[in-house]
Amino acid sequence: MASRTKPHTSDAHLTTPTRLTGAEIIWATLVGEGVTDVFGYPGGAILPAYDALRKFPIHHTLVRHEQGAAHMADGYARASGKVGVAIATSGPGATNLITGIATAMLDSIPIVCITGNVSSKILGTDAFQEVDITGITLPVTKHNFLVNRAEDIAPALRHAFQIARSGRPGPVLVDITKDAQQASAIFDFAAAKPRPYRPHPMLKVEPSGLAHAAELIRDAKRPVILAGHGVMESGAMEQVRTLAERAQIPVALTLLGLGSFPASHPLNLGMMGMHGEAWVNHAIQEADLLIACGMRFDDRVTGSTSTYALKAKKIHIEVDPAEINKNIKVDVALVGDLRAVLEDLLPLVATRDGSAWLKTIDASKGAVAVRDIKNLPDSGHLYAAHVMHDLWRITGGDAIVATDVGQHQMWEAQYFHHEQPRTLITSGGLGTMGFALPAAIGAKTACPDKEVWVIAGDGGFQMTAAELSTIVQEGLNINIAIINNGYLGMVRQWQEFFYERNYEATPLVSPDFVKLADAHGICGRAVHSRAELADAVAEARSHNGPFLLNFMVEKEDAVYPMIPAGSALHEMIRRPGKSPIVESADDKL
Amino acid sequence: MTHTFIAYVEDMPGVLTRVASLFRRLNINIHSLTVGHSERPGLSRITIVCEASAEAGHRIRASLYKLENVVDVDDIAQAPSVTRELALIKVAATPKNRSQIFELAEVFRARIVDLAPESLMIEMTGVESKIEGLIQVLNEGEDRILEICRSGKMTMRRGHHTSRVLRAMGAAAEDNAESGTEPPENLEAGAAVEPQ
Ligand SMILES: Cc1ncc(C[n+]2csc(CCOP(=O)(O)OP(=O)(O)O)c2C)c(N)n1
Ligand SMILES: [Mg+2]
């Protein structure tokens, strides 16, 4: 375990203006912003900052690739709700961050990335390891700064934190030249405070809009709440739940919304969209009112927009005015912070009897519920769905799960039921393979007392597998489940359905992951059948230290149901009849 | 439809890129873009003219506001406003055929601002169609036009709509149906009142 205690330095400089080097100002500002952990990788242009690190009470996790640093900062932010911080050097260090920054951008995750750059005198000369990183990251950051004077560092960083966490959160990059780090300036934390936060001028929640929304809710016969990531970001879990319970409205969740409404709640329908359960998408298509809370009608949840929920009036509660009427035209837009809007709306909402509609939805589950996964024999095979289901049961659903991208990600979303917000960490918007392992490291750093699982495919795991060393160096107790199907499974599935089973470039040779873990000093075990599963998971959980399970699952299984991209939400591909795995409707722990 | 946005932005390096980059990201072609100092210290005023669907206006304005350095955005749309463009046109002309161009300039209310032995420069301010008209006529003869420099459109709402007033009114910029004062009768001699 890397030491977390440092010679305690006085933080008098936080209260008294003090002359510091630019490098020291970086850390002093982070400390002032409440940062305790950063993820980074050194290099020439950021070396002055690294040299000053030892004087400050900040723990630095050395990553193995800067993409990992950005994902760790991201996982840290998703698990804790705090701003994550990643650090890299100029040039290749900075460009390696980009996938991670874009991942955070598309999922609205607050991170601050700090990069070094060449000295200001040689900016723009194609100097060694110089890239225009503020130019490159412009479209994938909420904002970015190029700082070339020591006195500008603290104001830029403080402004960056404000931007990252305010409104609709997102990544901010601060690029600091080497000479700015080496020069000195008076550090005055209080004076570096950014100008007051300016809410987006087009936020608009009018009493008439609230009244109209309340009326629609009152009169609706078949309402559905669509809960997205914004529920968590705005901390509106209680308010959404109150609305659902008071007006007896079922709740469908987006992938990033999972956990924002308890999975076990009787009003929880489950995940909507491309791999959502049939009854969820049917309910949306049949609804006469959709109440969209902190979600953006992404194409993965709407399918074809021209056939989406045509019978429904739509209320959209959203903090980003640019999302209103972007994909789906709505009848009432309440543009503001979800929690605040719901607090204003709830007094206008009376109790309602929703039983008829709930019964209709329940009846539509019928056939599916009978074929519950837990009653089905595994016939000696190991199905990924069983792995998710059993992992959920054994952990009591009480772990933080970081998934990668692919089939396993969808199976996790379907079969691992999340009760609590911030327990599913997954790349939804960008769909970034390689995300799970570093994101889990970030999550574990933020929540050292929580059980943390990585669930990754054999493909995606290899994209960032080098971070296994980071786990070891940091002494992190993280469990890793590799869903090993020998394929880039999700792509193979598309080839199966839409490209006449032409499995071009999807069969995948992998190392023996247990040996790979062993080479890192991490214990592991392969699992070939469901019979071994519980014991293997128990071993991983009780083992003191990280543990890797290599689940050798069925190779050519597919995620069902599936709405082909661009099709209507009710036009889904169902699991062929006699297949042993089906959707489960009424799982209880 | 044609959209015209006025953006007040902080006058600092890189801000224009951020604005332009937004349009690139939305896959919208910018017809014209003019930038200059505004009545507000530290803020530049940008006029952006682009072609996009009617519904796109809201999203573009909202997205512009999401840029950290953008302070105010007005979507002119159909609101009563004055739009002008400045053009400098260099024309080949010898003392022999100058007078013909002088006459043309007179008709178009343009000015001759430079005279050289073999060329002259015309300055013209007006709506786009007027400038295009002059260019067309100049092009009718032999190859007379040597150089054209056009500023792109600048637009200002009619009536007492300063950017500050607009902001205070909040909703006004949002709802363009609500008009300012009636456009006064041809204030400026020869200025065509915009058809819209
Ligand atoms: C960085 C990146 N490259 C490519 C893709 C396209 N892609 C989506 S899912 C997938 C297959 C993932 O395979 P694996 O990690 O083995 O997971 P599985 O689907 O088999 O569970 C691919 C290649 C992606 N999402 N991200
Ligand atoms: Mg795979």
Short description:
Chain A is α/β, with parallel strands linked by helices. Chain A contains 23 helices and 20 strands. Residues 404-408, 431-433, 457-460, 483, 485, 487-491 of chain A line the site of thiamine diphosphate.
Description:
The complex is a heterodimer of chains A (589) and B (196). With 589 residues, chain A is of the alpha/beta class. Helix content of chain A is 36%, strand content 16%. In chain A, the strands form four sheets. A six-stranded parallel beta sheet of chain A has the order 3-2-4-5-7-6, with helices on both faces. In chain A, strands 11-10-9-12-13-14 form a six-stranded parallel beta sheet, with helices on both faces. In chain A, strand 19 (523-527), helix 23 and strand 20 form a beta-alpha-beta unit. Chain A is globular. The two termini of chain A are 35 Å apart. By secondary structure, chain B is of the alpha+beta class. Chain B is built from six helices and nine strands. In chain B, a hairpin with a 5-residue loop joins strand 2 and strand 3 (43-51). Chain B starts with a strand and ends in a 22-residue tail after the last helix. Chain A binds chain B through residues 134-135, 138-139, 142-143, 146, 163, 200-202, 320-322, 324-326, and chain B through 14, 17-18, 21, 25, 55, 58-59, 61-63, 65-68, 72-73, 167, 170, 174. The complex binds thiamine diphosphate and magnesium ion. Thiamine diphosphate is lined by residues 404-408, 431-433, 457-460, 483, 485, 487-491 of chain A.
